């Protein structure tokens, strides 16, 4: 054993300093290289994950907005259609009302006209009656002048009535 | 160094700082540490959320090591916990090996007697370096085992008095821990030392062109040995953190 150590030149000083060298390198790799590197990788991973999450949310929001848009459009269209149909309905009602009013007025006017015509007719009939009566009186008078005994007051009346009846 | 010269098993002693002897392998190991310090400091200040090519490259390497560890350990969190240890072992051995085969490195040195004693020599061609790493690996494995299983359960692996068979198995386990240190250290030492000898010999026989494939091969060996060292450490961590070892 002693000769082995001697032949290979093993000594505590070199051995210890080589172990020390290793520990220095271990410290460098652990604390100067790996630790900050792992930190930066973890940070990067987090950032990338965040970015992906945000992107996902954005696309989700976009689809939501699209749905909202089409919904709003649909609603607006429905409203418009409703408004138009309502307007149409009202227009029709108005039309019907106007028509009815017009009709009524026409009828009223017709009635009034008819009345006026009737009145005028009655009036003219009355006038004609009185004229006729006068005319008949004159005829009778002339007839009496020709033959005064044949006529009296009662007969006159009877003749006038008969004349009126005849005129009607 | 001529072909007739003796190739020393032990690292050549260069000078002493007081009582502290400095060998050429230790010196190159210091160079590696300095390189790591420079790299670490410059890397830390350059870490960004959006990685550049440089950072992306190291992230990729660490991720590959993590994937490998995850495959063996079966858990990403555990793999991340022990990544620093495994990565340090891997990169220390790798950089040491590659620094050691830099051409021309062994020709710079001080003349002692008839031969040149180079300033730098591959750290892993000195048993001190490999033994140090083996001790670190085995001790770290045991610490990890104690931390994940508790000291009672861990000691029970080695000292079990339930029955004679378990007692004997425990003794074997204890021996195997030391066998691990020996196999770890001699495997790396043997490979790198053999590579050194091979390069010196080939270089001395045919100095031009012929050593090139051997250099490439030594680059590969340097990587493979670093990989094996790290991989075995992962495997030992896996068996240390497993609750019951199957026998």
Gyration radius from CA atoms of chain A, angstroms:
65 Å
Largest sheet of chain A: none
- Per DSSP, the total helix count of chain A is 3
The percent of residues in helical segments of chain B reads over 70%
Q: If you had to describe this structure to a student in words, what would you say it looks like?
A:
The complex is a heterodimer of chains A (168) and B (247). By secondary structure, chain A is mainly α. Chain A has one domain. In chain A, 93% of the residues lie in helices and 0% in strands. Chain A has helices at 2-8, 12-146, 153-167. With 247 residues, chain B is mainly α. Classes of the chains: A mainly alpha (168), B mainly alpha (247). Chain A binds chain B through residues 7-11, 13-19, 21-26, 28-30, 32-34, 36-38, 40-41, 43-44, 47, and chain B through 9-11, 19-21, 23, 25-26, 29-30, 32-33, 36-37, 39-41, 43-44, 47-51, 55, 58-59, 62, 80, 83-85, 87-89, 91-92, 123, 126-129, 131-133, 135-136.
Essential attributes:
heterodimer, A: 168 residues, mainly alpha, 93% helix, rod-shaped, B: 247 residues, two-stranded antiparallel sheet, 7 helices, 70% helix
Describe the structure in brief.
The complex is a heterodimer of chains A (168) and B (247). Chain A has 168 residues and is mainly α.
SSE diagram, text form:
The complex is a heterodimer of chains A (168) and B (247).
Chain A: H1 2-8, H2 12-146, H3 153-167
Chain B: E1 13-17, E2 20-23, H1 24-46, H2 53-73, H3 76-100, E3 109-112, E4 115-118, H4 127-149, H5 151-158, H6 164-205, H7 211-241
Antiparallel strand pairs in B: 1-2, 3-4
Helix pairs in contact in B: 1-3, 2-3, 3-7, 4-5, 4-6, 4-7, 6-7
């Amino acid at each position: 054993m002693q000769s082995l150590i001697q032949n290979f030149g093993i000594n505590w000083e070199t051995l210890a300093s080589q172990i020390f060298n290793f520990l220095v390198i271990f410290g460098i790799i652990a604390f100067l290289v790996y630790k900050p590197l792992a930190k930066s990788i973890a940070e990067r991973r987090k950032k990338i994950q965040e970015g992906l999450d945000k992107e996902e949310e954005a696309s989700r929001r976009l689809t939501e907005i699209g749905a909202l848009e089409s919904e709003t459009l649909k609603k607006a269209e429905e409203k418009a259609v409703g408004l138009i149909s309502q307007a149409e309905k009202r227009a029709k009602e108005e039309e019907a009302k106007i028509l009815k009013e017009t009709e009524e007025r026409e009828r009223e006017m017709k009635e009034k006209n008819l009345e006026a015509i009737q009145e005028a007719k009655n009036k003219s009939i009355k006038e004609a009656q009185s004229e006729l009566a006068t005319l008949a009186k004159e005829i009778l008078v002339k007839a009496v002048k020709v033959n005064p005994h044949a006529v009296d007051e009662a007969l006159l009346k009877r003749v006038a009535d008969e004349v009126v009846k005849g005129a009607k | 160094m001529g072909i007739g010269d003796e190739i020393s098993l032990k690292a050549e002693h260069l000078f002493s700082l007081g009582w502290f002897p400095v060998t050429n392998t230790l010196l190159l190991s210091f160079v590696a540490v300095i390189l790591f310090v420079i790299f670490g400091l410059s890397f830390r200040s350059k870490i960004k959320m959006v990685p550049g090519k440089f950072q992306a490259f190291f992230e990729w390497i660490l991720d590959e090591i993590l994937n490998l560890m995850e495959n063996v350990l079966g858990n990403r969190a555990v793999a991340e916990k022990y990544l620093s240890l495994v990565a340090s072992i891997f990169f220390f051995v790798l950089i040491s090996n590659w620094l050691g085969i830099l051409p021309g490195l062994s020709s710079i040195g001080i003349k002692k007697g008839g031969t040149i004693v180079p300033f730098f020599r591959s750290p892993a061609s000195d048993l001190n370096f490999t033994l140090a790493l083996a001790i670190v690996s085995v001790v770290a494995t045991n610490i990890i085992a104690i931390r994940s299983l508790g000291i009672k359960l861990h000691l029970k692996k080695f000292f079990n008095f339930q029955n004679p068979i378990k007692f004997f198995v425990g003794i074997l386990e204890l021996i195997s821990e030391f066998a691990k240190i020996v196999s770890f250290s001699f495997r790396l030492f043997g490979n790198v030392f053999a590579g050194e000898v091979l390069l010196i010999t080939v270089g001395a026989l045919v100095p031009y062109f012929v050593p090139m494939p051997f250099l490439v091969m030594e680059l590969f060996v340097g990587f493979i040995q670093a990989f094996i060292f790290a991989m075995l450490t992962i495997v030992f961590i896996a068996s240390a953190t497993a609750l019951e070892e199957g026998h």
